[in-house]
Amino acid sequence: MIRTSPLVIALVIILNAANAQAQKQLGEPFDLGVGQSVLITNAGIRVGFDELASDSRCPIGVFCIWEGNATVRIWGEVSPENRSFFELNSNSQFRTEAAYLGFIIRLLRVLPYPEEGTVSGPNDYTVTMVVVREGPIPAAGTTWGAIKALFR
User: Fold this and answer.
1) 131, exposed or middle or buried, with CB in 10 Å at 0-12, 13-18, 19+?
2) What backbone torsions phi and psi does residue 151 show, to the nearest 5 degrees?
3) Which of 31, 54, 95, 136 is the most exposed place for a label (fewest CB within 10 A)?
4) How remote is the C-alpha of 25 from its chain's centroid?
5) 3-class SS at 99?
6) 3-state SS class at 83
7) What pLDDT does 141 receive?
8) Mind listing the pLDDT tens digit for each residue in 94-103?
9) Is 5 inside any structural domain?
10) β-strand 103-111 against 45-55: which pairing, if any?
11) Beta bridge partners of 148
12) Structural domain boundaries, residue 54
């Protein structure tokens, strides 16, 4: 009879939980920390958060004449040899989404938001993103059923 250590069993459970959390579906928002990635299972692509490239957002508690912008470097891949990098922005005046192999990778949020007197380290940041199918913008008069069919 083979005996399995409780430590080995716990490790297998933790690894399975981590793998389950690293998978999402199209249209399902997800959070990533620096260096993390997620597999979009029904698209066959992996999306990752490489780094915060810059952050000029106006800190909470400070009066600014401009809201600022956070730029993040993300990537998409179907295989490690086929990785494409993109810079996306928190400010809608700039590029907030990227087209990749028939899909749109959209940046929704960058956290933490800067606060006066607080400094965040380069690995403290998380992004919220979503991946959707790339497709035409429905014309006026299009039925709701036809719009939903674009995203199935």
Assistant:
1) buried
2) -110, 20
3) 136
4) 12
5) strand
6) strand
7) 55
8) 999 999 999 9
9) no
10) unpaired
11) none
12) 23-149
